[in-house]
Every structure is written in structure tokens, then in C-alpha cells.
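Researcher: Here's my situation. A collaborator sent me these components and asked whether they could plausibly form a single complex. I don't have experimental data yet, so a predicted model of the whole assembly would be a useful starting point for our discussion.
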Amino acid sequence: MEFSYLSTIIFLPAVGAIIIAFVPNLTQRLIRYLAALFTLVPLALSIFLFLVFDRSMGLAGAVQFEEKLAWIGAINANYHLGVDGLSLPLVILMALLGFLVVLISWKIDLRLREYFAWLLLLETSILGVFCALDLLLFFLFWEIEIIPMFFLISIWGSGRKEYSAMKYVVYTLLGSAMMLAGILSLYFTTGSLSMVDIAQAGIGSYTAVIPLAAIFFLLFTGFAVKLPVFPLHNWLPDAHTDAPTAVSVVLAGALLKMGGYGMIRLCVTIFPDIARTYAPLLVALAVVSVLYGAAVTLRQKDIKRMIAYSSISHMGYVLLGIFALSQVSLVGASLQMFSHGFITGLLFAMAGLVIHNTGERDLAKFGGLVRQMPVIAVVFSVAGLAALGLPTTSGFAAEFLVFVGSFSSTAVAGIQVYTILAVLGIVITVGYILWMLQRVFYGPALEKFNGTRDADTLEKVTIFTFVAVIMLVGIYPAILTDIIKTGIVPVMSLLGG
Amino acid sequence: MNLELFIPELSLGIFALAVILLDLFIKRKGYLVVVSIIGLVVSAAFTIAMWGGSSQLIFNNMLAVDGFALFFKLLFLGIAALVILSSVDYVSRFSRFQGEYYALVLLSTLGMMLMAAATELISLYVALELASISLYILVGFLKDSRSTEASLKYLLLGAVASAVLLYGMALIFGVSGKTQLLEIAQTVQTLSLEGVLSSPALILGIVLLVAGFGFKMAAVPFHMWVPDVYEGAPTPITAYLSVASKAAGFAIILRVFFSSFGLPEWLSLNWGLVIAVLSAIGMTWGNVAAIPQVNIKRMLGYSSIAQAGYLMVGLAVVGFSPAGNILGQSTVLFFLACYALTNMGAFIAIIAISDKIRSDQISDYAGMGKRSPIVSLGLTLCLISLIGMPPAAGFMAKFYIFSAAVQHDLLWLVVIAVINSAISAYYYLRVVKVMWLNKPASEEKVPSSGTLRVALAISCSGVLLLGIIPGYIMRLAELAARMFT
């Protein structure tokens, strides 16, 4: 029997969580090393998968490293895992972030045992979402994520942490409630819980008892809460602002991508016709998200809240790319998910460092920090420039693909207008990013920040890793787009384009 | 006369009497627990031995020995065992009547086993009274003012419910001239909509039956007794009421409605719709009313009303599905098994904590994660299961029951139900929050006894097992629903 790579990648963090939570008498030091170990091995394995993944177009759409076991006979559910060009980059994203956030959390000492247990469990559930090919399994992993997030925000957060944690849970549960109804309707319509089978047979080959558009929107609502799409975004600023740094990084970096991934994997792949019918509406929603998110970001005073709102705007590009429904735009949307994961992850990590080292989080009270913390200032600036899409960063490659793909798309009438409007979002992004960098790092040095620490060695390693990935994908995007394309081409053939 | 098919009930009855007698002669009351548990195990062993045999009717067709009844018998016996294990600490403080306590638990279990098996209205009623009267006494066992008030309330409302039920049965008898469920079905099948509308005794009878059973199931609008009784009763008995008594209510309503009123189709569609509406109201009301509760037993009382609402989704499916389709029944059975483990687990954890800190207030659970981590972890798991989140049993239970509902044009009800699940997270998680986040009032550890830990471990591993690999129990539930006379 072949080695079960995906199961190992998914469940190693959970095993680590159980060991950390239940083995008595672990020292703090040992707990940290255990957490690092149990995220490093999945990372190494996922990079191995990346290297051996078959990129030939002949295999486009084929699921690789597949595992399938009968799970629940009564409802025809299987334990079915696999990755294709769409999900593999996200698995790598989560595995890498999973390891990096352990390093970011190195200095945490409050209830350390529980903290790392929840963090590792969170990683398992997100990895599971990206690998699951069975709807029930997918939903199971999707739901498991909520409890670790609740604890992580409400215990190790700051500010109104309990309120934010509960808000996060209620929003997410309402979203997943809709999704569950959608999944059940889909199951009833097709009699199958296998994403692969349903997509292959085509939803048109089943007799629809429940209007397909209703199923589509039930599912879409669930994903839209997560992405988030205006007007379902309300949980995000609070959750981000009050979450501990590492959790913000995972939340922005990987959790939001579950929404975008779900939209491509289920909404577009299974309902290509419905997606085409409603694409104009959804694209318009994307533009609203982009512009609204960017405009609100400009007005933020709290450094973390600002980055949180910028996520709404950046996720709007993902939505635009997805429902522009052209090959280039879908590849762009997928790349944007990966790229945003690292860029915004880095932004949150940097904001966390600044807040931790200065004890300040109000943008108006910063100034001149470049003198006290030069390394942080430089890396923060790189992250900011990547966020506004400077060439040679992954942000440029991704957004460029989204815009080119959308502008030239033939699937949606008047898409050019929407694209141009969305591009305006970039202008606002430039505004808020540069303004923020200026307020935090430039201007006269402030006395009160004298003696503030710059990044230490471990932090430097962590943030330079982020920068390296951002630059690597920015300079040579084909390293990922080749893989993503094998995932998108079959989707395009379903769309008939 | 097939007396050997009656051995599970017979042996349990004998053990119940033995416990009372033994109580007179022995000093070490701990043996009573052992004898009671042995009684349950023996009865369960006999029940399991009958599994797989063909369905039979005994005592002039008054009781059925079919998969459905056996499934419920095992469920009740399991619940009773957990209740007895979790009562040990509680009861050992009583100066008198320890034997009676255990014997009454066994007797009411016996009543519920008969309820699940009864195929005839009168024996059904007698079984129900056996279960109820034992419970009236048990609710009042503490003899303080709260417990007495709860007992009186339960007795009075229970008596009214019994009367209503009896009246309903009388009307059904009046329409059909029979008390056998299957014979009633033969008459009811021939009725036409116009005929029934012109002489509505049948409708009135069915409505009264729903009311009578609804009391047992703690379904809205027959739930008024729940919060007070749950709060006042000894906590193990509260657990017993919330799980076994509810399951028994669902057992009889499933059997009566499926056997007698499954046909004609217009009839089953109509009562299915009534149940669906009651279900929607029930879960919404239960969840909304649970939010402001400060007493954890009251909160779980309202939560159990909401859970009855989810269960009634499965009941509605039974009404909506064409005759011979057993998906609705099997989902209800599976949900009940999951719910029983989950709610028992939650109550056992509450017994472990509340008994030591002498308070049922949620705010007094502050910092329990530090003071009693294992029990708090168990309670957290069970609360997550009640929300219906993986990897706990509650998730699979809801998934299964809702998937059945979607298949029978009840998507609207499923949407209401899933939104309700999201709302319920608020109050369940509030308890979790208090336990793990709030500062403890004192640093003192809260120890728990061995028996409670065993009981908690059993429930929690069951909850996890059913949440991750539910296939076996689902198949069992399906088999049980298929072997239905």
C-alpha cells in the first residue's frame, strides 16, 4: 500500500495537539519544540508533494495522492482525500504558515499547553478542508476549525476578545448552516457526496428537485461569510483586531482562503451554468467589496484593524477573478489567494511585532520608528509594497492576472467596467499603505520609543522566510501558475470556455 | 405464550424487587448499586441475545418483540446504567430509602421498555404510567422545597397529560372499535378525507395523542413543566428525564403514528405537517429561551426542548415519507442514541461539578477548566456535541436527520433548524467560555469520584465514537427501523 501522504500531513498536527495537551509534565521549552516539530514535518511532506506533483497537462484535473476508504455506508460517505492543482498550493500555504506561526508564537507563555494544542488542531482542520473530496468530510473539517478559533481569540486575544470570538463563531456558524443546507440539497439531488463524481457527471444529468440556483446560493453564502464578501464581512475586523498575532496570520493567511477555495471547488465547478448566469451580480459584489473595503481601510486608526479591512478589499479581487470566469482570471484568483496569504500574513506578523515591541497600536501615536527598528521598518515596507502590488512581488503577479483575465473575459457582459472600477481599488490601497508606513516609521523620531527592540534572530528568520516566498513567487510566478493551471483547465472545460 | 421473549423485562422487574428487599438486610449500601447494575446488564444480555430474531408479538398481541423495541430497550438500559453510576455519590448521602431510589430507577426503566414494545393502546398506557409514577417519586426524592415543588408540578401536569392521552385513546377506540395499533390502521386506512372532516373524532383523537406524547417528549407547547422540574429534581434524575423519558416519548409516538396513522397518505402528510410546524416552533423557542438562563440545569432544560424540536424533524419525515420508507425512523433512532450519550455526558459532568461546589449557577463554573480539567473537557465536548459540531456525535446526528428531511421536501424546516443550531452555539459556548476563560472563585481543585469518571468516560468516548465512525450504529438503527411490526 502506498504511503498516505495527505492523511499524514493533515493529522500530524492533531497528533501533536493531543500529545501536547495530555502528556503530563512537559516543560514549556519542550512544548514549543514539539509544536515546531509537528508542523515542520507536514511542511516538509507538503513540499515533497509539490516537487513530485505531476504537472503535465495530460493529467489536468486528475486528483493526485488520492486516498479513499469507505466511511459511513448508510449515507454513502467516504474518507476521500486528494489534491489537484487548485488545492496543492493552498496546502503548502497552510503547512508553511502553520510552521511559521509556531515560530511567531514562540514568546507566548500564557497557558502554553492549551495554546499550541488549539493552534495545531486549527492547522489540521484547515489542511483537511483543502484536501477533502467528500462533501461530508469537507464540512466536518470546515466546522472543526471553529472551536480552536473561539478559544484562541477569546483566551489569548486582546481588547474585546470575548465579544469578537463569539461574533466570529455566530457568523461562521450561520454561514456554515447555509452551507450545510446546500450540501444536503446537493446530496439529495445527486445521491452522492463525492465532489469528484458530481462534477464529472455534471449537475445537469440529475433531475433537480430543489432549484439549482437555491443550492448554489446556499453554498455561496457559506463561503461568502468566510471570504468575506460585503455585506457579510462584519466579523472580520473584530476577530482580526482582537486575535493574537499568530491567529491573525492564520486567519488572514489560510482561513479566508477556505471561502475562495470552496467557491471554485463547489460553486463554479459543480454549477457552471448557474455561475455564469449570476456572474454579473457576483462580480458587482466583488467590486463593492474591493472599493468599500479599501475606503474603510483608509479611515482606520488601529494598525491591526487597518490590515484587517485591507483583507476585505484584497479578497474582493479573488471574488472578481473567480466570477469573471476566464482561465486567466481564475488562475489569478488562485494565485491571489496564495499570495495574499503570505503578504497579509506578513503584515499581521509585522503589526504584531510593532505592537509587541512598542506597546502601542494607535496609528496616530506612532512615528519615526525606522530609527529604532530598522529591520522591522524595511520588512514592513516590503510587505506593504507587496500588498499594493509592486512588480517583483507576488501581489503584482496575482493582481495583474486577475485584472487581465477579468478585462478580457467574455463570460460577463460589461466586465471591463467592473475591472476598471476594481483597479481603482489599487489606487486607494497605495494611499492607505503608504500613509500607514509614513505614520508609523517616518517623521521625527519619538523619545518614548527610544530603546525599543528591533526584531531578534528568530523573528528575523520568520519574517525573511515570508519575504523570500513573496519575492520568489513575484519573480517566477510560473512555479505556482503551472500547477494552478492544471487545476483550472478542467474547470474551464466545464464552463465551456 | 412465549414467556422467554419477555425475559428482559421479567428479569429487570425481579432485580428491582430484589434491590428493595436487599436494602432491608444489608448495611453496606454500595452493594445496591452493584445489584442494580447487574440487573441492567442481565436484562441487556437477554435483549442482545434476541437481536436478529424475527419480529414477534406476545401476550395476545399486546407487546412486540421487534428490532425497534430491542433498540430502545438497549438504549434505556444503557441510560439507566449511566444514571445509576452517576447517582452513587448523590444517593450515598441519603440516610434512608437508598434501595427505593435504585429500585424506582429500574422500575421506570422497565416501564419505558414496555412503552417501546407496546402495540396496543391499553398496555401502552399502563407502561407509560409505570414509567411516570416512578419518575414522580424520583423527582421529589430530595424532599426539599424545590424538589417537592418540582415533583408536585410534574405529578399534576403529568396527570393532566395522562388524562388527555386517555381521552385521545378513547376517541380513537370510538372511531375504530379497536385498541390494537395494527387493527386501528385497518379502519383508518379506509377513511376518506371528507368522511373524517364531517365527523372529526379521529382528528381530535390524534391531536390529543400528540399532546399526551408531547408532554413526554417535552415538545413545545407541552413543555411548561420542563424548566422547573429539571431544576428541582435530583440532577441524575434530571438527566434521566431529559434523555430516557424523552426517548420513550419518541418511541411510542413513532410506533403509534407509523403503525396506525401511516396510511392513508393525506392523513400522514397532515400530521407530518403539524409535527413539522411544532418542531420549528419548538426548537426556536427552546433556543431563544435558553439564552438568558443563569442556572445550568434550567438551561439544559430549554436545550432539551430545542433538541426535541430537532428530533421532531425526523418524526415529520416519517409523516412525509411514503409507506414502507424507514429513513425517518432510523434517523430518529440514531439521533436519540447520540443525544442520549451527549446529554448524559453533560449531566454527569454537571453532577461532578455542581455536587462539589453546591451550586447550579453558570457563573459559579468560572475557571472550572483549571479546577477540574478532565470533567470540564468532558462537558465541553458534550456541549459542542449539543451544538452539533464535529467531531462529536451531535454533528452526525443532525447531518443524518436533516439529510432525511431534505429528501422529503422539508428544506424549509432544515433551514430553520440549521439556523437554530447556530443560535444555540451562543448559550452553549457561554458555559464553555465561563469554564475556560473566567477567573476561578478559588484555586481549590474540584475532585470527582471514580464512578462519575467512569460514567463520564463512557459517555464521552461514545460521543466521539459516534461522531467519527457512526456507520455501525447507523446501520443498527436502520435495521431496527426495518424490523418494525
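Model: Some features of this prediction you could bring to your collaborator: The radius of gyration of chain A is 21 Å. The mean pLDDT of chain A is 90.
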